[in-house]
Amino acid sequence: MNTSYHLSHLQELEAESIHIIREVAAEFENPVMLYSIGKDSSVMVRLAEKAFAPGKVPFPLMHIDSKWKFREMIEFRDTYARQHGWNLIVESNLEAFRAGVGPFTHGSKVHTDLMKTKALLDALAKYKFDAAFGGARRDEEKSRAKERIFSFRDQFQQWDPKNQRPELWDIYNARIHKGESIRVFPLSNWTELDIWQYIRLEKIPIVPLYYAKERPCVEIDGNIIMADDDRLPEKYRPLVRPRMVRFRTLGCWPLTGAVESNATTIEEIVEEMMTTTKSERTTRVIDFDQEASMEQKKREGYF
Amino acid sequence: MSQPSTNDTTKSLDIRSYLDADERKDLLRLLTAGSVDDGKSTLIGRLLYDSKKLYDDQLAALERDSKRVGNAGDSIDYALLLDGLKAEREEGITIDVAYRYFSTNRRKFIIADTPGHEQYTRNMITGGSTANLAIILIDARKGVITQTRRHTFLVSLLGIKHIVLAVNKMDLVGFDRNVFDAIVADYRALTDHLGIDDVTCFPLSARDGDNVVRHSPRTPWYEGPALLDFLETVPIHADRNFSDFRFPVQYVVRPDLNFRGFAGKVASGVVRVGDTVMALPSMKSSRVKEILTPGSGELVSHANEAFPPQSVTITLEDEIDISRGEMLVHPDRPDQGDAAQSKNLPHIGRLFTTMLVWMDEEPMNTDKQFFLKHNTNTTRATIAAIRHRIDVNTLEKKEGKPFQLNEIGQVDIHTAKTLFFDAYSDNRQTGAFILIDPITNNTSAVGMILAPIDEDTLASDDVPTLDLPRLGITAEHYDAVERAVRDLSRQGIEVKLIK
């Protein structure tokens, strides 16, 4: 046996993801890749570019802008899409935005429901996408550990954890009726460390917020929140102090806690990750709304 | 025997060399089978816990949950780590496949954790289809029971090459060597019967950690490695088929008129630049011009060869029309002389006999036309004959009548389109398929092909035919008609074109 026919775990994961992405492009009429601008999305987007090179990726990228994202994220998104020739769709729940919905005034639950979940469902319906890629990983969170790579959604975009299609080998069932759709998770089997390792090896650009820097921060309910724009409520403003922080996940700035850090390189980030005591989603404020909250959100159509 | 490796020393290691070493690790996918009572979740929890990959807040949540619904008294209930969904947490059982990830200094692991209940055969089949290795749990007090036989049969059906027999709860039988030896002897009788030769047995106490990551002083008579040590080192590389080149074309990459690349995953075998390859079903041959693999730091790079499970893009010297669902193969073995002996083609046909596992609440209906998906091919298919069912408890054959959920047996399948397949035992990639219900779109059944059947028994041609000249369709419309026919074919509906 020639032992040189050997893939490392990352090469094997890469091959698996590319196979999944190509399968979707071949089997669906109108797929879309959902882009959160986070590190996992950055990896997923790179895998899509690889899957079709030297051709172009045959589907667009869509970002659901909650209107409360970090400004650096939006800047990064626009630059990346332009430089890499992506067809970028940006959608928001403008009705709720005009009505003034936001995390400070309406709480994280209402904000997430309207600006993220509803905005996403409306956008998927508007363009009649029949498949949507998401960058979720199974190691992120308990309910995701049970989700299929091709995750069926009914016409209301709902996930039924007790009625999932069996998924065997690398044969994916892509058949749906009109109005139904499939969420596809090509990074299902990647871990957080795999993502960082891949970003490091492939030199994939990521939003600078992942690296430590002195940023204006205020402590709200035990979370370090960065004052990203002037919508920070009056009462917190006097408490804003510069702190050396970075972000382990990216989302809406009032709902995304920073961690104190000096890590300015990927190696330092990984080192910090390996010695740290908190898993990544704890910096995401929305998870604490209720027990099993992610499962609840997923059933409702949120990723 | 080397020391079990954990990530203890990571902090002191230079992070860069840690990452460089991490990059080279390979991946082992493993399936665990056993019931709640066997301590399966406890064993997995222990592997995860002891390999130091549990983050503190997951632990804190666990402590909180343990107090509410735990079954382990005051100590941490490792099983709660694994039971994710809210509904089943209350039922106290794992109802579906859950995937867990951990790594040691030597390897990365993906665990498919599946339940042991009879009604959930389909979940074990789902979780095990990609596994390199299966851990079968046995309660030392109970020995080999019906469930053990069932799980072992399923593992053999899935073609999982390596079995670990984890004889758990050895603490409850006083770490008695005779108990262990008797169970091992019983179990080997079973695996011999099923033709499984790679079985490794471990005396464990998952709750206390004996022989899980460290050799236990309580089993001085046991001379083998600890379980984790074995999992880290068991060779799996040679399990893949590197001899029969099969490349199901998944997608055609065509950025401009000068480039036509056939993208797909190498199902088996090795292909090199310059090799003569043949496209199925057209039987047209050409030579491999380029092999594009995902680049490192760039989108693509050129390689001299491709092997499973790589996802690559292949270009050919000649312009041959090949689309999704077709397959590139070696027309003969490049290394062997005698032409008659060296044919290396898959079976090409529309009728085969197969093992089938019924996964649908709705029972099998032999009048129904299913969609069959095999590699990148989708076609209409019917169940032409039911040969027998297998009693998964006794492994005896039963009368062949339509399968209910979780029933397994042998059937013959007839497809509308020609498939290119191998026996599952020769080639896990090209011997597997799924059946999809045309009305609910559910994955109704999954199959492992046994052998082709001579097609003389079939009506010669039941594919509808479009004779374009006879229909008075002129040549300028041929392209459009061909496109429509290709589209139908992609959806599993075959139409024959005469031009």
What is this structure, in a nutshell?
The complex is a heterodimer of chains A (303) and B (499). Chain A is of the alpha/beta class. Chain A has two domains: 186 residues, HUPs (Rossmann fold, 3-Layer(aba) Sandwich); 83 residues, no CATH class.
Which ranges of chain A are low-confidence, i.e. pLDDT below 50, for 5 or more consecutive residues? 286-292
Rg of Cα set of chain A? 19 Å
The CATH topology of the largest domain in chain B comes to: Rossmann fold
Instruction: Please report the first level of CATH classification, the CATH class of the largest domain in chain A.
Output: Alpha Beta
- The CATH superfamily of the largest domain in chain A bears the name HUPs
Q: Please give the largest β-sheet of chain B.
A: 8 strands, antiparallel
Describe this protein's structure.
- The complex is a heterodimer of chains A (303) and B (499).
- Chain A has 2 domains: 186 residues, Rossmann fold (3-Layer(aba) Sandwich); 83 residues, no CATH class.
- In chain A, 35% of the residues lie in helices and 14% in strands.
- Chain A contains 8 helices and 10 strands.
- In chain A, the strands form 2 sheets. In chain A, strands 3-2-1-4-6-5 form a 6-stranded mixed beta sheet.
- In chain A, strand 2, helix 3 and strand 3 form a beta-alpha-beta unit.
- In chain A, helix 1 crosses helix 2 and helix 2 crosses helix 6.
- Chain B has 4 domains: 230 residues, Rossmann fold; 84 residues, Beta Barrel (Elongation Factor Tu (Ef-tu), domain 3), CATH 2.40.30; 111 residues, Elongation Factor Tu (Ef-tu), domain 3 (Beta Barrel); 34 residues, no CATH class.
- Helix content of chain B is 20%, strand content 31%.
- In chain B, the strands form 5 sheets. In chain B, strands 7, 8, 9, 11, 12, 13, 15 and 16 form an 8-stranded antiparallel beta sheet that branches. A 6-stranded mixed beta sheet of chain B has the order 2-3-1-4-5-6, sandwiched between helices. Chain B has a 6-stranded antiparallel β-barrel with strand order 17-21-19-18-22-23.
- Chain B is globular, with a radius of gyration of 26 Å.
- The N and C termini of chain B lie far apart (69 Å).
- At the A-B interface, helix 1, helix 2, helix 6 and helix 7 of A face helix 1, helix 3, strand 2, strand 3 and helix 5 of B.
